[in-house]
Design brief:
single chain, 414 residues, mainly beta, Porin, 18-stranded antiparallel beta barrel, three-stranded mixed sheet, 1 helix, 21 strands, 2% helix, globular
Length: 414
Amino acid sequence: MNVAKPKKLAFLVFILPLLMSVNNVQADAQGEGEISLQTRLFNQTPQYDDQENQSRSFAMSFNVSGNIGTSIDGEIETFYRYDDADWERTKGDFRKAYLRWINPRYEVLVGLNRVFWGVTETNHLVDIIGQSDLVESPDGETKLGQPMVTLAIPIENGLVDFYLLPYFREQTFPGKEGRLRFSLPIGQDKPLYENDDEEKHIDVAARITKSFDNADLALSYFQGTGRDPSYDFSAESSVILPYYPQIKQFGLEAQYIKDQWLFKLESIYRDGQPNLFFEDEAYQAVTAGFEYTPYGLAGSSQDLGLIAEVLYDSRGQAALSPYEEDIAIGGRWVLNNLQSAELVILWIQDVDRFARVFVVEGSIEMGESMALSFESTIISHQPQPSVLRPLESDRLLYDLRDDDSVQLTLSYYF
């Protein structure tokens, strides 16, 4: 079973409740939790030994937050999942465990936290502070708790954030028994680092956000250990080794609202990341598009939003992502009813080949304390690697061609 890292910051889990229990300290705390049952169903025979057509898991999370006096608040969030098919998915994590000092001129946060950047629907290029928990969520939208010290300074219609990141957390990958993995498993117990300090390298980042009448703009900079690994395919024949380089990244996020239109843009320039062929190559990547939502569909309370985005990576077939030149179209159906029912459908199509990915996500609340969510991913027409071209961006999903899945999650909130 995986153990949450880093252990040196585990004491933060105990600071907040202890401080709240000290006499003569004005403390106001509240707690909430979630227990969920989940099943993943795969409708095709697995490609590799030890894999199964179904997995069942149990997860629970607890969150405690509160104020200590008038200028300090804090939060603790723990998470644990047990999965009967993939032991790499059985793990616990402290997603949050921080204290924050607040005054009108600035805020200082110390501890574990999760930070999300990005505005687009299909690919969050700029989101680099926290590490993706791929075994929990293959789309990369679930993050591990990241140790950090942050300084936030309010400005007119905006905010300036500075980040000191003293410890790096490695990306999680499915194990040998798990689905949605490559033909060779990732040797996540043998990571390679460019810097001799490895996971103890101190990373830094900064971000400035600004709001205008109908627009939001954000500029960011990151320097340190790249959260997205490159891969060493030649070090060992039995596994693929993740390699974490030292990178520099400039990011841009933009949103513009005009009537029923929402325009979105994410763009990065990154230097220091080896490409798919393990060659150093600075590159640019862009995800841009729009969402059009005519409110009150056919005179009802329902909304149907149309989504379209373009995904581009200047590395082409040397990109570490299969979405180097793709188009995504889809829709978001929101019923606006008492059950908060919502359905999102996306079709991601490669421009050069017939390769495509379909994604369907839905959720509905059942009363005040229960919810049911549904996710399905279909990976279709993936081109087979050839002897002359065993590695190409467009061929990265070939090993997942039989991993079409349906995931159902029943959650209870308390």
